[in-house]
Design brief:
heterodimer, A: 575 residues, alpha+beta, Multidrug efflux transporter AcrB transmembrane fold, Pdz3 Domain, 5 domains, six-stranded antiparallel beta sheet, five-stranded antiparallel beta sheet, 40% helix, globular, B: 318 residues, Alpha-Beta Plaits, 2 domains, four-stranded antiparallel beta sheet, 11 helices
C-alpha cells in the first residue's frame, strides 16, 4: 500500500493535477477580507481631490483598495459605510483608512440654486463695439457700459454635504467575478433624442452591443422599452461598469470625422477597414511620451488604422493643392499648410500635421493620436489609454444613429436573487455525491467511487480558478457550461474504468493499449463537443458565448489534466 | 414444489430476457420506428406550436419582454416574498421583482411581468397586486410603467439557429474525418438533433415557459448526447473483438452507466433546488437524457447496423 501511495505521489499526471489545484486555489484566493472595496471614484469629488485613485478595471477583486475605517470607526460592510457617510457635515476633514494608505478628505457643502417667484434688479457691465469717427477716420472701439437688468431672484440653499464621491461594495471574499444575473449591476435608462422606427431601434441596440463588446464589457443586457405614452427608451443592464464609463460609451453618439480644411476625409465605421489594437500598433506614443506642464501631466497615445480606398482617395484630393510649409519651431521638417483635424461629436479632439511627402498621395495607413491628462504620470497614462480605447471603439463601430440622453442610473439587484449561489452550491454537492453513490453501486469499489468524486470536485475548483485567473464572469450560462464539463467528465471516467478494468476489451492485455483505447473515445467526443461550441462563440449574444467558452475551457481541463490523473490513479491502485 | 415454482419463475424471466434480446438483435429495423415516430411527433408538436403561437417555444419574460413597473420604495423588504405574492395573482405569467439602489440604499423596486402592456385590465390587475403586496397607494406615488422588449434581442434566435446548424455541421465533419464514412456522422448529428427536438416538444407539452437558462440547457444536451454516440460508434467500427452485437452490448453497459448516472444527478438536483431557473435546466436535461436512450441505443444502433450490413454485402467485414 505504502509503495502504491509513493508511486502515485511521484506520478507526473497526478502531480500535474495537484499543481493545477494549488494554482487554482491561489487564483481564487479565498480571504476573510474586511471593509468595503472601492468600485469607482467620481471625478472632482472630495475623494478624488484627496488623491484616492480610480481602481484599474483589470485588478483582481481581492487586491482592490478597501476602506477599513473612517475617522477610526471601523467600516465592515456597505451599510456601515453609507450610514457613516450620511452623517458627515460640510467643510470637515475626515480621515479614511484604506488598505493602501490614510487619506484626509475635506467634505464639500452642497448648494442648490432655487429660482424664486420674484425679480430683482442687477447691474451688469456690457462691452459693445462702436463705430466712432476719430480725426476723420472711422474706427471700431470697444465701449464698456453699466446696464441694469431685471432677473428672477435666486437664492442659494445649503443642501447638506456633497457625496464624498466613492462607489463601494462589500469586500470580495474571492477573486471569482460574478456575472450580472448573479450579482446585479447598473441599470441605465436611456432615451433617444429623436423618435426611431422599430428597425432603427434594432440597429441602435446592435450597435451599442458591439460597442460594449469591443470595449470588453460583454456581460450586458440591452432591451428596448416604451412607456404607455409612447416615449421610447433603451434599458441597459451592465455588470462591473462605472457610471462614468457608461456615460462615455453609451450616451455618446460617437460621430467621428477627420477633416482637412472644410472637407471630410473619413468617418468612423465604414471608412475604416482596420483598427490596430495590438501592442506594437497602439499605445502610448514612444516618440512623444509623457510630459509635465505645471501641476498636470500629459501623455500622448497613438494607434494605426487602415482606411478604405475611397477614403484614401478623398485624402489625396484634399491634400493635392496644399502648400508645403516649414515647421515653425525647427524650420526643418516640411509639413503641409493644413492639418488633419479629428472631431468627435463635433468637438475637435486632436490635430495632426501631415508630412509633405503625403501631398496628393492616397495613403491607407494612418496613425491616429490623442492625449490624456492626470495628476501624476500614472494617472495620465491611464487616462490616455482610456481615451484611446474609447476612440478605437468608436472607429470600429461607427456612430449611433441618434444621440442618447441618460434618464437615470441605478444599481439593480440580480435576476436570480441573493440565495441563488448558496442554493446552487448545495445542489451541486448533493448531485456530485449522488453520482459517486451510483458509481459505487455499479462497480462496487470505493477505490473507483472516491477518485471520481475527487475528480469532479477538482474540476469545479480548477474551472473556477481559471475563471478567476482570466477575469471571466461566472453567470448562469457559465454555470451551465461547468455542469456540462463535469457531466461529460463523469462519462469519460466511466469509459476509462470500463475500458481498463472491465472485461469489455478482453483481448487486449497491455495496460497502455487499454488506456490508449479509452482516450481515443474520449478525445473524439472532446473534439466533437469543442467544434460544436465554436460557432456558438460567434453567435453574437452574450449568453451563448459565455456558455460555449466555459464548456470549452472545462472539457479541455478535463481531457488534459483530470482524466490523465484519474487513469494513472486507476493504473497504480487497481491494476 | 416451492423450489420448482421458483425455478419456473426464473425460467420465465430468462425467457422474457432472451426474447427481448432477440427482438432487439433481429428486429432493429422495425425498432427504428420508435425514435423516428418520436422525432416526427416532436416536429409535428413544434410545427403546431409555431402555427398556434408564432414561436417554437413558450418564451418567458426574459425572452419575450413584457411590462416593467418601477415603484419608488425606500424600505428593505423580502423581494422573494413580494414576488410570490404578486405571482399568486398571475398563475399563468412570469413575475420577477428586483430592487433598485442608489448610493447604497434601496430607492425602488422593479416588477417585471410577461403580460401584454396594451391590455389595460391586465396592467391594472398588476398595479393592484403591487399595491396590495407592498401596502402602498400608487396614485400618490410617481411610479413608471414601461413595455419592455426581449433581453436577447430580435436577432438572437436567428443567430443561434444558424450557429447550431454550423455546430452540427462541424460535429459531422469531425466524425467524418475520423471514420471516413458518411452514415456514422449523420447518425451522430441526427441523435443530437433528435434529443434537442424531442426535449423541446415535451417541454412545450408541459407548458413550461423557457428563459435564457432553458436555452443553455438545450445546448448542454449536445455534450451529453455526443458522449454515448461516440462511444458506440468507436466500439462498433474500430474494435475487432467479438461480433458487432457483442460490441453494441458492451457499449450499452458503459453508455447506460453514463446515462443513469447523469439522470440520477439531474433528478437529485431537481428535487433539492429551490431555484426555478435550475429546476428548468434540470427538467430539460432529464427529458433530453431519456430521449437520448432511444436515440442512441435504437436509432444510432439501427443506422450503424444498416451501415455494417451494407458493407458486409460488399464483402467488407467490420
Amino acid at each position: 500500500m505504502n509503495y502504491k501511495v509513493k508511486k502515485l505521489l511521484t506520478n507526473w499526471r497526478v502531480l500535474l493535477l495537484v499543481f493545477f489545484l494549488v494554482a487554482s486555489i491561489v487564483a481564487i484566493h479565498p480571504t476573510l477580507s474586511k471593509g468595503v472595496a472601492i468600485r469607482s471614484v467620481i471625478t472632482n469629488s472630495s475623494a478624488s481631490i484627496a488623491g484616492i485613485q480610480q481602481p484599474k478595471p483589470n485588478i483582481q477583486p481581492v487586491n482592490r483598495e478597501r476602506i477599513l475605517s473612517i475617522n477610526n470607526v471601523p467600516i465592515n460592510n456597505v451599510e456601515d459605510y453609507y450610514k457613516y457617510t450620511s452623517t458627515l457635515t460640510p467643510n470637515r476633514t475626515i480621515q479614511i483608512k484604506t488598505t493602501k494608505e490614510i487619506y484626509k478628505l475635506t467634505t464639500i457643502e452642497k448648494f442648490e440654486t432655487i429660482q424664486l417667484n420674484e425679480t430683482e434688479q442687477k447691474t451688469i457691465t456690457e462691452t459693445i463695439e462702436k463705430n466712432v469717427t476719430i480725426n476723420g477716420t472711422s474706427q471700431i472701439i470697444n465701449e464698456t457700459m453699466a446696464k441694469t437688468v431685471t432677473v428672477p431672484k435666486t437664492i442659494k440653499v445649503s443642501k447638506g454635504t456633497e457625496d464624498i464621491g466613492l462607489r463601494v461594495y462589500d469586500a470580495p471574499k474571492t477573486n471569482i467575478r460574478k456575472g450580472l444575473d448573479l450579482q446585479g449591476g447598473t441599470r441605465v435608462l436611456l432615451q433617444p433624442e429623436a423618435k426611431l422606427s422599430p428597425y432603427d431601434i434594432g440597429v441602435l441596440i446592435d450597435n451599442m452591443k458591439e460597442r460594449l463588446n469591443v470595449y470588453g464589457l460583454s456581460d450586458i443586457v440591452i432591451r428596448d422599452a416604451n412607456d404607455l405614452v409612447g416615449n421610447q427608451y433603451i434599458v441597459v443592464e451592465i455588470a462591473g461598469a462605472t457610471e462614468e464609463e457608461i456615460k462615455d460609451l453609451l450616451a455618446r453618439q460617437g460621430k467621428f470625422e477627420a477633416k482637412i480644411g472644410n472637407s471630410t476625409v473619413f468617418r468612423g465605421g465604414q471608412d475604416i477597414v482596420y483598427v490596430g489594437r495590438s501592442a506594437n500598433e497602439a499605445g502610448i506614443d514612444p516618440s512623444a511620451g509623457c510630459s509635465q506642464s505645471g501641476q498636470q501631466w500629459l501623455c500622448r497615445f497613438r494607434f494605426s488604422i487602415t482606411l478604405s480606398q475611397q477614403a484614401a482617395q478623398r485624402q489625396a484630393e484634399a491634400t493635392k493643392d496644399l502648400e508645403i510649409v516649414p515647421e515653425p519651431t525647427t524650420g526643418r521638417d516640411n509639413y503641409l499648410s493644413q492639418k488633419l483635424e479629428l472631431y468627435l461629436d463635433d468637438k475637435k479632439v486632436d490635430e495632426l500635421s501631415i508630412a509633405s511627402d503625403l501631398k496628393g498621395q492616397a495613403v491607407t495607413q494612418i496613425s491616429i493620436s490623442g492625449t490624456g491628462f492626470g495628476a501624476n504620470q500614472q494617472a495620465a497614462i491611464y487616462d490616455a489609454l482610456q481615451n484611446m480605447k474609447r476612440l478605437q471603439t468608436i472607429l470600429i463601430t461607427g456612430s449611433l444613429p441618434v444621440k442618447l440622453g441618460i434618464v437615470k442610473t441605478d444599481a439593480i439587484s440580480p435576476v436570480l436573487g441573493e440565495q441563488f449561489i448558496n442554493n446552487a452550491i448545495l445542489m451541486s454537492l448533493l448531485a456530485i455525491i449522488a453520482v459517486a453513490i451510483v458509481i459505487g453501486i455499479r462497480y462496487w469499489k470505493l477505490l473507483i467511487a472516491i477518485p471520481i468524486l475527487i475528480t469532479m470536485l477538482s474540476e469545479v475548483i480548477i474551472l473556477l480558478g481559471v475563471a478567476a485567473f482570466i477575469g471571466w464572469n461566472i453567470d448562469l450560462a457559465a454555470i451551465a457550461g461547468i455542469l456540462v464539463a463535469i457531466g461529460t467528465g463523469v462519462d469519460d471516467q466511466i469509459v476509462i474504468t470500463d475500458e481498463t478494468l472491465k472485461g469489455e476489451t478482453a483481448t487486449v492485455y497491455n495496460w497502455k493499449e487499454k488506456v490508449k483505447r479509452a482516450f481515443l473515445i474520449i478525445m473524439l467526443a472532446y473534439l466533437t463537443v469543442v467544434v460544436a461550441m465554436i460557432p456558438l462563440i460567434f453567435a453574437g449574444a452574450g449568453l451563448l458565448k459565455g456558455f460555449a467558452i466555459t464548456t470549452i475551457i472545462g472539457v479541455t481541463i478535463g481531457v488534459f489534466v483530470t482524466r490523465p490523473a484519474y487513469s494513472s490513479f486507476v493504473e497504480v491502485m487497481l491494476k | 414444489m416451492e423450489q420448482n415454482n421458483q425455478q419456473q419463475k426464473q425460467e420465465i424471466k430468462k425467457n422474457i430476457k432472451q426474447t427481448l434480446f432477440e427482438f432487439y438483435e433481429k428486429k432493429y429495423k422495425l425498432l427504428l420506428i420508435i425514435p423516428i415516430a418520436l422525432l416526427l411527433l416532436a416536429l409535428v408538436q413544434i410545427g403546431f406550436q409555431i402555427y398556434k403561437t408564432g414561436d417554437f417555444i413558450k418564451k418567458d419574460v426574459s425572452l419575450k419582454g413584457g411590462v416593467t413597473v418601477t415603484v419608488p420604495f425606500e424600505k428593505e423588504v423580502d423581494i422573494k416574498q413580494i414576488e410570490r405574492q404578486i405571482a399568486s395573482q398571475f398563475p399563468r405569467n412570469d413575475i420577477a421583482v428586483r430592487t433598485l439602489r442608489s448610493i447604497g440604499t434601496v430607492v425602488g423596486l422593479i416588477v417585471e411581468a410577461d403580460i401584454d402592456g396594451n391590455n389595460k385590465a391586465d396592467v391594472n390587475k398588476l398595479l393592484n397586486s403591487i399595491e396590495d403586496s407592498l401596502n402602498i397607494d400608487l396614485s400618490k406615488i410617481d411610479y413608471g410603467i414601461e413595455i419592455i422588449g426581449s433581453s436577447l434581442g430580435a436577432s438572437f434566435f436567428r443567430e443561434s439557429l444558424i450557429a447550431l446548424a454550423v455546430a452540427f455541421l462541424f460535429m459531422g465533419l469531425v466524425v467524418l474525418i475520423y471514420f471516413r464514412t458518411f452514415i456514422p456522422s449523420i447518425a451522430i448529428i441526427l441523435a443530437a438533433f433528435s434529443d434537442m427536438v424531442v426535449a423541446l416538444a415535451v417541454i412545450n407539452l408541459m407548458d413550461v415557459r423557457i428563459g435564457t437558462a432553458g436555452i443553455a440547457a438545450f445546448l448542454m444536451l449536445i455534450g451529453y448526447s455526443v458522449d454515448t454516440d461516440i462511444l458506440l460508434t468507436v466500439r462498433v467500427l474500430k474494435r475487432k473483438e467479438g461480433t458487432v452485437m457483442d460490441r453494441i452490448i458492451s457499449s450499452i453497459k458503459t453508455g447506460m452507466t453514463e446515462t443513469i448516472t447523469a439522470i440520477v444527478a439531474v433528478t437529485v438536483a431537481m428535487i433539492v433546488t429551490q431555484s426555478e431557473v435550475i429546476r428548468q435546466i434540470m427538467l430539460i436535461l432529464l427529458i433530453g437524457l431519456i430521449a437520448d436512450v432511444f436515440n442512441t441505443w435504437i436509432q444510432n444502433v439501427g443506422l450503424l447496423r444498416i451501415y455494417v450490413e451494407r458493407k458486409a454485402k460488399k464483402g467488407v467485414v467490420i
